């Protein structure tokens, strides 16, 4: 049996996930935890499971706080309404990232992925996990941004570019500019590289919004929606840029 824990602060979501997991007879649910505090206490006093299903935003913090306080070799499948935490999740032993509402086929696929990582002796090595998940690339499809006291979901397909200014990374849409919590380096890891390309140290552009490309004296890109600053492709990136345009 595979010992399993759920970390979820919304009781209806926890009950639904528990019902879905009951369809997998080789999973044994040993705890259903509701907060960072509960989880830290439980992991401090009990044998760790092999598999954890965890929401990210809990009532008393982020579930990342749990695993920064408690070292575990368990595999983690995150379940959340937002995918802006993808990069950090995959740095913390995550093997999958399921967006709510969770579909049965997605859940089954995540469990099968978990099983493929478990050797025949059922042992788990966190270093091995990290090497395996480096081979996985989760594509960021939407970003949560803050506007005053409100939150807004922006689909990445609506973003013409990301750019850095005064150590803050902004995203440009048709309507307006929003600040984000990402760095450009982080974004290059999680954006769809068929759509997005980092043309220089300051800009990542979306091919769907390219209006014109000037080639002399330097490669300069015009987007349908962009900040006032010119977007120039750095010399060392020109060849990769041209290859990206036709792939």
TrEMBL record:
InterPro entries according to UniProt: CheY-like_superfamily, LytR-like, LytTR_DNA-bd_dom, Sig_transdc_resp-reg_receiver
Residue ranges of every copy of the Response regulatory domain listed in the record: 3-115
Phylogenetic placement of the source organism: Bacteria, Pseudomonadati, Bacteroidota, Flavobacteriia, Flavobacteriales
Residue ranges annotated for the HTH LytTR-type domain, each copy included: 143-247
GO molecular function annotation: DNA binding
Transmembrane segments annotated in the record for this chain: none
Superkingdom of this protein's organism: Bacteria
UniProt key word Ligase: no
Keyword DNA-binding: yes
Pfam families, per database record: LytTR, Response_reg
Species whose genome carries this gene: Chryseobacterium luquanense
SUPFAM superfamilies recorded: CheY-like
Sites bearing 4-aspartylphosphate, chain numbering: 55
The protein's name in its UniProt record: LytTR family DNA-binding domain-containing protein
Keywords: DNA-binding, Phosphoprotein
């Amino acid at each position: 049996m595979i010992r399993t824990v759920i970390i979820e602060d919304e009781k209806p979501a926890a009950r639904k996930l528990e019902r879905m997991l009951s369809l997998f007879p080789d999973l044994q649910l040993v705890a259903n935890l509701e907060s960072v505090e509960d989880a830290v206490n439980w992991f401090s006093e009990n044998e760790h499971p092999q598999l954890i299903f965890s929401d990210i935003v809990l009532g008393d913090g982020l579930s990342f706080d749990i695993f920064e306080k408690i070292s575990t070799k368990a595999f983690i499948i995150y379940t959340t309404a937002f995918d802006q935490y993808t990069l950090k999740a995959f740095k913390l032993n995550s093997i999958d990232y399921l967006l709510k509402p969770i579909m049965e086929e997605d859940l089954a696929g995540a469990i099968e992925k978990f099983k493929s990582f478990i050797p025949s002796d059922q042992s788990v090595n966190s270093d091995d996990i990290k090497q395996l998940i480096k081979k996985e690339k989760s594509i960021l499809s939407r970003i949560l941004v803050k506007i005053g006291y409100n939150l807004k979901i922006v689909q990445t397909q609506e973003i013409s570019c990301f750019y850095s200014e005064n150590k803050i990374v902004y995203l440009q849409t048709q309507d307006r500019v929003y600040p984000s919590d990402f760095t450009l380096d982080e974004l290059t890891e999680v954006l769809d590289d068929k759509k997005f390309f980092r043309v220089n140290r300051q800009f990542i552009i979306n091919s769907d919004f390219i209006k014109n490309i000037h080639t002399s004296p330097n490669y300069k890109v015009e987007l349908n929606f962009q900040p006032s600053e010119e977007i120039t492709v750095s010399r060392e990136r020109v060849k990769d840029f041209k290859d990206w345009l036709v792939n």
